[in-house]
Amino acid sequence: ACSRQGDVPAAEAILARLSRAVEAVGEPLAVGSFNAVVRTCAVAGDVGAASRWLAEMGRMKVVPNHMTYRHVLEACAQAGATSQAEAGLFGMVREGQEPSSEEFRSVLRACASRGDGPRTEAWLSRMEAVGEAPNVLCHNAALAAHARARDAGAALAKLRALEAAAPCAQPDAASYASAATACAAAMRLPEAEAL
């Protein structure tokens, strides 16, 4: 329950009690126990706590898994912490974990929340360069970045590229809504209405 509500102090208290219990029988905490706390940090958008728990896992010799990194990156996305999201993805790769479109999408969402279209597009290119095909949700992050930046030209170009690439990444309602938002914000109302 505390995880769904993003109640980091409650999740940390539960982990502390669990830690004492398993230490009493000479067992280490499982990675899943840490993941539950890091997931709570993600729901709360608490990048500092998520990073602190990732470091604590290292200190306790508990190897983070794919889900650990996914939750840390999601915390970064929730908080719009672009630099931390990028560092988290690079850290994941350094530790031998291969990021999927979900992890890349967290970085893209962090960029989008800042309205950083060029940075978002650069991450889409990085995804493709490592053989990870961006899905429509990833492309929608770029569209959202262009909308936040009020860059109608970039949003329309991205939408047209998606339409041309279909069915690989078929634009959806969110794609068109972001492009329309960018057009409306840039006072290109006829184009917004046409979408």
UniProtKB/TrEMBL annotation:
Keyword Repeat: yes
Keyword terms, alphabetized: Repeat
Domain PROP1-like PPR positions: 34-164
Pfam family, any one: PPR_long
Entry coiled-coil feature ranges: none
Keyword Repeat annotated: yes
Protein name from the UniProt record: PROP1-like PPR domain-containing protein
